Amino acid sequence: MTVLEATQTDSLNAATAETPFTADLSVLRQMAGVIPGALPAAINGVRFAASIRSRKFVIEGGDETSVTMPRTAFQLVYPDGTVMLDAGMDKATHDSFGEGEPFYPDEFVKLQRALNAAQLIVLTHYHADHVAGVLQASNIAELACKTIATRATLDLMMSHPHRPHLRLSAENARHFIALDYDAYYPVAPGLVLFKAAGHSPDMQMVYVRLQSGREILHSVDAAWNMDNIRQVKGKAAPWVNENVSAVIGQLRWLKHVDDTEKNVTVLVTHDDDLFERLSRENVVGGVQ
C-alpha cells in the first residue's frame, strides 16, 4: 500500500475522531537556534492567484457566502540572501483547477523572480499550488538543485501528481535535495520544518524566528482560513481528501498556540483577510 493509499484509508476511517497533534513549540524554538548564523530579518508574501469558493466548502457548517482564497508563497529575507517557502504555480496549472478564476500575471512574475534569486526553496507538500512554480519552470533543473523536498513529497510527485501534467520524472527528481527526517528539521538559522501529515500525507508546517524576536508559525494547508483554527472546524470540500482526525488535532493545537502565545503569528496559506491584515501591519512584506 502506498503512502497516498494509506492516507485515503485513514480518511475513510477517521469520521469525527481526533488525533492529538504532538508538535512541541519549545523544541521548535530550540531548534531554530541550532544552525549558526543571522536570523531572517523579514518575511514577505505574494498572492499570485485566487480561488473563489462558497464558505460552506471552506469550513464545516459554513454558508453560501463567497470566500476569496489566495494562492500564496512566502519569502524569508536573510542578510545574505532569501529562502522561498513553496513555489506557487503557473497559469496553466491554476486554470486546471477551474477556468476563469483570478490569476495575477504581474505577481507571478515577482514570484518567478523570487524563485530564481532564492538561495533555497522549500516545498511543504506535493500539491500543485505549492510545487508547480518549480516543476513547470523552463529552468527546472537549475531550480531543483536548490529545492528541498522530502522523499515522501518527491515520491508523490512522481507516482501520484496532484495534476497529471505535473508528474515528476526520475531524471528531474535526482536534481532535488531529498530530505528524510522524523519529526523536526532545522533548515537554516531561525527556520524549522516539522511533520504535519493530514491535509496530505507529506505535509509539513514551518516555524520561523525573525531577528526582531517575532515568531511565525506557518500552518500551510492544515487550515484554509483562520476560522478553521478559531472554531476547530475542518474543511467541507468534497474534492479534498484528508486524514480528518489528524487535521482536527492540528487545528486544536494551532488554536492553543494562537490563544496563548502572543508573540507567535500564525500564517494560513489561503486566508485573504489575514494576508491583508498582516500586510497592513507590516508583519508580511512584498516579495523582493
List key phrases describing it:
single chain, 288 residues, Metallo-beta-lactamase, Chain A, seven-stranded mixed β-sheet
Kindly describe this structure.
By secondary structure, the protein is α/β, with parallel strands linked by helices. The chain has a single domain (15-281), classed as 4-Layer Sandwich (Metallo-beta-lactamase, Chain A), CATH 3.60.15.10. The chain is built from twelve helices and twelve strands. It has helices spanning 3-14, 25-31, 55-58, 91-95, 105-117, 128-135, 140-144, 151-159, 170-173, 226-230, 244-260, 272-280; strands spanning 42-54, 66-78, 81-85, 120-122, 147-150, 177-179, 184-188, 191-195, 204-209, 215-218, 264-267, 284-286. The strands form two sheets. The protein has a seven-stranded mixed sheet. A five-stranded mixed sheet has the order 7-8-9-10-11, with helices on one face. Strand 8 (191-195) and strand 9 (204-209) form a beta hairpin. The model is unreliable at 8-15 (pLDDT under 50).
Summarize it:
By secondary structure, the protein is an alpha/beta fold.
Record the SSE blueprint.
Blueprint lengths: L2 H12 L10 H7 L10 E13 H4 L7 E13 L2 E5 L5 H5 L9 H13 L2 E3 L5 H8 L4 H5 L2 E4 H9 L10 H4 L3 E3 L4 E5 L2 E5 L8 E6 L5 E4 L7 H5 L13 H17 L3 E4 L4 H9 L3 E3 L2
Parallel strand pairs: 1-12, 3-4, 4-5, 5-6, 10-11
Antiparallel strand pairs: 1-2, 2-3, 7-8, 8-9, 9-10
